[in-house]
Write a structure and sequence with these properties.
Helix content is 66%, strand content 0%. It comes from marine sediment metagenome.
Length: 64
């Protein structure tokens, strides 16, 4: 879940952002975390069916 959170953080808070110094970056991170924590919820994990042909295609792609 940590990787997912950092992905969301990167897209919503850092993408396209520019900071003059590390203090500005720290403040942006703190503001995002404070706002995120107001309404955070557990991630919903879903299991999906993987067909045999999908597995075969993935294995073949790894070989190339």
């Amino acid at each position: 879940q940590v990787e997912i959170w950092f992905g969301i953080f990167s897209r919503k808070s850092l993408a396209g952002a520019s900071f003059r110094n590390t203090e500005e970056l720290r403040e942006q991170i703190k503001a995002y975390v404070k706002n995120y924590n107001k309404e955070c919820k557990p991630f919903k994990w879903r299991k999906r069916e993987v067909k045999g042909s999908q597995i075969k295609n993935n294995i073949e792609n790894l070989r190339n």
